[in-house]
Amino acid sequence: MYFDEDKGEHGGYRRLKGDTVGLYVVVGNTTPIDVNVADGDITLNASDIQIGAVELKDGETENRLTIEVDGTKYALYVQSESLAQESTLAGVALESGGNLDTIAGKDFATQTTLETVATEVKTPDRTVDTIIDNATFNATVEGSAISMIGYRHLMITSVLGAKTDTPTYTVSLQVQDSNDNWITYDTLPTLSTGSETQVETYYDIPADTVRVVATLASTTSFADVTLEVTRMN
Predict the structure, then answer these.
(1) pTM for this one?
(2) Is position 6 within any domain?
(3) pLDDT: which is higher, 66 or 182
(4) Would residue 51 count as lying in a domain?
């Protein structure tokens, strides 16, 4: 999960340095729950808080936090599949090639100083997921679920080789709802001539999980097909 850097409705971002920023955890629109500090991690006691329900805010201004260390912006995300029973929030570097070893801040409820919140880089500036890897496309392909946590934008790239007979190739972007159903978010124009390329970019994807489906219609196949999804910030 990433935290907005917009200077609009969220009021900009704050630097998390020293002991000047108070943190607390907001779960949806409910009352903030306590943050316990153990072994340098932020630990939550919650029955079943799902990914995407947790955000960190400045205790005074209600601004969402972007963490900035030596000019590099960082964010926080939910490390496990849920926050049931002592799961932790881990720091994630969005723009750094190295490790984020120490973030100094202060717990809003206990005034305890937080250090060494993050230990490793998990989310690079962009990640490429290959759905079809230079292969013959002769049947519909449903891509695996792709997590958008830590990313805002997405680009779909298709490269088709020569066709045999009269196949058609159509890519759709699907998002997963709260009941784990797949809903079509957008369908790209159908390709049918072969030896062509298609690129489409989506901004501010409104879902934590997406997948891409490449549908084959009509007859036979395309050669040397590559389908990639690039997650970006």
Answers:
(1) 0.51
(2) no
(3) 182
(4) yes
Phi-psi region of 10 (alpha: psi -120 to 50; beta: other; left: phi over 0): alpha
Q: Could you count the other beta carbons within 10 Å of the beta carbon of residue 85?
A: 11
The answer to whether 149 touches 89, Cβ cutoff 8 Å, is no
**What gap in Å lies between CA 11 and CA 64, rounded to an integer?**
8
Give the chain's domain count: 2
CATH number at residue 161: 2.60.120.260
Q: Which residue, of 114, 141, 176, is where some domain finishes?
A: 114
Residue 36 has pLDDT above 50, yes or no: no
